[in-house]
Write a structure and sequence with these properties.
Blueprint (H helix, E strand, L loop, with lengths): L4 H17 L21 H6 L7 H33 L6 H49 L3 H6 L2 H43 L1 H7 L2 H39 L1 H6 L3 H53 L5 H43 L22 E9 L5 E10 L4 E6 L5 H8 L7 E6 L2 E2 L5 H7 E4 L8 E2 H6 L7 H11 L2 H6 L7 E2 L8 H15 L3 E5 L7 H15 L3 E5 L11 E6 L2 E6 L1 H7 L2 H9 L8
Parallel strand pairs: 3-10, 3-11, 6-9, 9-10
Antiparallel strand pairs: 1-2, 1-4, 4-5, 7-8, 11-12
Bound molecules: adenosine-5'-triphosphate (ATP).
The site of adenosine-5'-triphosphate has 12 residues, from helix 12.
């Protein structure tokens, strides 16, 4: 394919301008809290360096190895100089001296290679250990966040932080740290060696230093900008990919593949252009430095050659100078190439810091109830509860009810009436704006979240199945739930029938999200999970999908089995599910508008009776 860097460069500039105009490249003030980056600050990196503290000895070893590597590298041209000036230039060349220098040279090469190898391996180990700890802490911190956080945050954004941003920190410790320390040392040693050989010629050589600085200064700004644009565009590609893969069914159902592929292509092309521009800028910088290095060598051949002819320096010294000048540019080039590594580490450290700074919106109380010594009778009370996800959009408006231990109650109402929100508050996924929610007479905010969630089991409409075996999915990877308990739970809810027929029974592998199981089978596994975990309260958000009559019968029987001996709250989409409920709460626009058992509500002839009349022909949701 014919490729034009200039064209890409021009396109890149146009894209950047357009994106700025459209506000896609956001200023810090416009970005979300998670993306806010103060590009110059090194605070984030300093805070993350606490993860490097346990490896101080390892870093010390790396510094020693870097010194050894550089000393051997600097010695080599000097050894050649000694061989030329002291052994070869004599009227009778000193063959024994040459042999000694040859041996010493080989030793320096072997020692240098060994030091470099050990240095890289140790550094990789340290870098990977650091990111392992950061990733683990990030994962734990993210999973502690309240649901409200996940409502508003793109999952792709979090995936990028845990995968890419931590990798950038690794590169900082492994590449930037090693390269900068080692190359800086190399420059110092080369300058030292040059002045040792001949101060005047060394001073002439230093003329290039300000030129190198000027070139670096000019390119630095361009490289930084190019780098930031590339990262922003890569982040967009990842977020787009994550969201589209998560919603792939919908995309396929609505035949949006082509449109989404077009959008993905646009994002990818824009990332490619930014990347090509970034590399183009970097390569131009490298080539300019290389040109300067070669011009310096040419100048040295002329100036140094003249000095040799006038016996100011020896030929071997000229050889050493030429080698040192070439070697002088290599570390400068390497250091400037690390500029991007530093930049990305700075940005990533800030982004990681932004995640760590998030305070979970739902916090455990300082002195939680000791559930082990508290006999919870599982009475549930809502006392004048008001709630809104967004201010000014009330979702629950003065909810009051009491559910006695062991009761089976149903919640019905049109879509958006607030049924699921009631359950979310009971599970303390969110906190009520005002009012109180009590379990066994104790406020839900007085429990540790982990205790509350072991008291209340939740089966949602869309049962989540993890990749693993059926048994793993019933015990949810908890090793203390034995195989017998798993089978007993499945038998209790009637899931054993279908599991037993599978080729590998309880060890049958299921795909992530349970795509190789039917809706009813997933429901039964979710019921078995509840029995295995044995919570005191069960919340069931009944599946809306139509099950065949046989599976529906099994699911109903399963539900009766789990509901036995525990308080059960069912959000019913089919009124048949709650026909026998002790009480039914009928909700409308965030309020409980009716309450009673099936017969009482029917005889009243109001909202529930209308729902019932319509439920024969259509779903409750259509009201
Ligand atoms: N995470 C959320 N963020 C913002 N608003 C939400 C959120 N979840 C629900 N809502 C809004 O709160 C209101 C009540 O929703 P809720 O899910 O509790 O209703 P529901 O009765 O359970 O409906 P359905 O039967 O369709 O599940 C709706 O207007 C909905 O748009």
């Amino acid at each position: 394919m014919k490729y034009s860097f200039r064209r890409t460069q021009a396109k890149h500039h146009v894209d950047v301008r357009q994106e700025k105009a459209q506000g896609k490249i956001q200023s810090v003030s416009q970005e979300s809290a998670l993306d806010a980056v103060s590009s110059r600050g090194i605070g984030g990196l300093i805070r993350l360096s606490t993860y490097a503290q346990p490896h101080v000895l390892g870093f010390a070893l790396i510094v020693v190895l870097a010194i050894i590597f550089n000393v051997t590298g600097t010695l080599q041209p000097y050894l050649v100089k000694v061989a030329i000036d002291d052994d070869l230039s004599l009227s009778h060349p000193n063959v024994h001296g040459l042999a000694v220098i040859c041996c010493v040279y080989i030793v320096t090469v072997i020692v240098g290679v060994a030091a470099n190898y050990t240095q890289v391996v140790v550094l990789q180990y340290i870098g990977q250990s650091i990111i392992r700890s950061i990733r683990l802490n990030l994962f734990q911190h993210i999973t502690r966040q309240a649901l409200r956080f996940f409502d508003k945050t793109a999952i792709g954004r979090l995936v990028t932080t845990v995968s890419n941003d931590t990798e950038n920190i690794n590169q900082f410790f492994t590449q930037f740290f090693l390269s900068t320390a080692s190359n800086a040392l190399s420059i110092i040693m080369i300058v030292f060696a040059m002045y040792e050989l001949n101060g005047r010629v060394a001073t002439y050589s230093m003329v290039v230093v300000p030129i190198v600085f000027a070139i670096s200064f000019i390119f630095r700004k361009r490289m930084r900008r190019a780098y930031q644009v590339t990262r922003t565009r890569l982040s967009r590609v990842i977020v787009f990919l994550a969201e589209n893969l998560a919603g792939i069914r919908i995309i396929q159902l609505f035949r949006q593949e082509k449109r989404q592929a077009g959008e993905f292509e646009r994002l990818n092309s824009s990332h490619r252009d930014a990347n090509v521009f970034e590399y183009g800028t970097m390569v131009s910088f490298n080539r300019v430095l290389e040109l300067l290095a070669n011009l310096s060598v040419a100048a040295m051949i002329f100036v140094g050659g003249d000095a040799v002819l006038h016996h100011v320096i020896k030929f071997g010294t000229l050889y050493a100078f030429i080698s040192y000048i070439k070697n002088f540019f290599a570390p400068i080039n390497a250091i400037t190439q690390q500029w991007n590594t530093l930049l990305s580490a700075l940005v990533s450290a800030e982004r990681i810091g932004n995640v760590f700074r998030l305070e979970p919106a739902i916090q455990d109380p300082p002195e939680p109830i000791d559930v082990a010594s508290f006999d919870i009778n599982a009475r549930i009370e809502f006392c004048n509860v008001f709630f809104a996800y967004e201010e000014a959009q009330p979702v629950l408006q003065g909810i009051n009810f009491t559910i006695e231990p062991g009761m089976f109650v149903g919640f019905v109402g049109a879509t958006g009436a607030g049924k699921s929100s009631v359950m979310s508050l009971l599970m303390r996924f969110y906190d009520a704006s005002t009012g109180q929610i009590l379990i066994g007479g104790r406020d839900v905010r007085d429990f540790r979240q982990v205790d509350l969630h072991s008291l209340i089991g939740l089966v949602q409409q869309d049962v989540y199945i993890f990749s693993g075996s059926i048994a793993d999915n019933i015990r949810l990877f908890r090793p203390d739930i034995s195989d017998k308990q798993v089978v007993d739970a499945a038998v209790t809810v009637g899931a054993h029938r279908f599991i037993d027929r599978l080729p590998n029974g309880y060890n049958t592998k299921v795909y992530a999200k349970g795509t190789n199981l039917s809706m009813g089978e997933r429901q039964l596994i979710a019921f078995a999970r509840i029995v295995a975990f044995n919570p005191r309260v069960l919340i069931l958000d009944e599946a809306t999908a139509n099950l065949d009559s046989q599976t529906e019968e099994w699911v109903q029987a399963g539900l009766q089995a789990v509901a036995k001996s525990r308080t059960t709250l069912v959000i019913a989409h089919r009124l048949s599910t709650i026909r026998n409920a002790d009480t039914i709460f009928v909700m409308d626009k965030g309020r409980i508008v009716e309450q009673g058992n099936h017969e009482e509500l029917l005889s009243r002839g109001e909202y529930y009776a209308t729902l019932h009349a319509n439920s024969g022909v259509s779903s409750v949701h259509t009201l």
